[in-house]
Structure formats: structure tokens, C-alpha cells
Amino acid sequence: MDVLETVYMVCLVSGIIYTVISLLFGDTVSDWLDQLHLPLFQPITFVSGLTAFGGAGYIMSRFTSLSDLVVFALAVVIGAGLAVFAYFLWVKPMSKAENSTGYSMAQLGGKLGEVGTTIPAEGLGEVLLPMISGTTYHMAASLEGKSIPQGTRVVVVEVRDHVLYVIPFSTDS
């Protein structure tokens, strides 16, 4: 086995190993690599191209009489082509389709809700907030230090230490 065949085999095996690791450990590795923020070099596109490059190069070097330079050039074209194909087939459509019912506490500022349990002037009550996934209940305190009775519509002004600080919501000007 010459040097280029070894390079092709290493690329092919690396791609296969990455695929097996991704299957076993979920999206952990992909999430870590996604932090590069390079749209065309997403893990799935990079690994698809690397694996195709290795596989095409190895097969062509073993079973054709093409020169090493031609085999290398064709392997690069095949790998790059498959990477671009993977980008447009999987990555780009999925980036538009990703929706989540999850949220962070920081996103709750400005949300309208209703007091479920009366909020005392100096204590905690409970606020019901409508979300995509249904209604959520959160601990709440009055930002102005005034009691807010059950059933009052409120707006979340700020979130500190997992407590929503709310004020009554009024449509009066």
C-alpha cells in the first residue's frame, strides 16, 4: 500500500469512526463541532466529504490504472461534491425546520401572563404563562412591592434567580 492509499484509507476509516461515535453518543460531538459557525463546514458535510474522498480515492487507486495525480484530483472532486450535496440535502433544509418547545428563563421578559396564586407585597406567588408547548407556571414577585391578586393579567418585567418580577398589565393609557 503506497502513501496515497494510506491517506485514503485513513480518511475513509476516520469518517466511519466518526459516524459510529455519532450514533453512540448522540449529538454531543456534532454540537461541539457546530460551534465553529462555518455554514458549509458543518460536521455532517465535512465528514461526508472526507469519507467520500477516502473511499473514492482508495477504490480508484486499487482498481483503476489512472495516475496518482488523476485519482487524487477525482477523489477531491467527489469528496467536495458529496459535501456540497450533503449541505443542500440535509444541513440547509434542517436549519429552517428546527423548532423547539424549550425556552430559557431569559426569554420570559416581556411575556404576558396571569396570576395563578396571589402575589403578596413581600413574597412569592405564581404566574401562568402561555407558551408554545402549553401553559407554564413560575414563581413570581411584585416588582413594585404591591400585592397582586389571583386572576390579574401581568407582564414580566425582569427575571432574577429564577423568579419573575411582574407588574399588572393594563391596556388603559
From TrEMBL:
Question: According to the lineage, what is the superkingdom?
Answer: Bacteria
InterPro entries per record: NA-bd_OB-fold (IPR012340), NfeD2_TM (IPR058653)
What does the record list as GO biological process? proteolysis
Stretches assigned to the Membrane protein NfeD2 N-terminal transmembrane domain: 2-99
Question: What Gene Ontology molecular-function terms does this entry list?
Answer: peptidase activity
Q: Name one Pfam family in it.
A: NfeD_TM
Which residue ranges run through the membrane? 6-26, 38-59, 71-90
Which terms are listed as keywords in the entry?
Hydrolase, Membrane, Protease, Transmembrane, Transmembrane helix
In its UniProt entry, what is this protein called? Serine protease
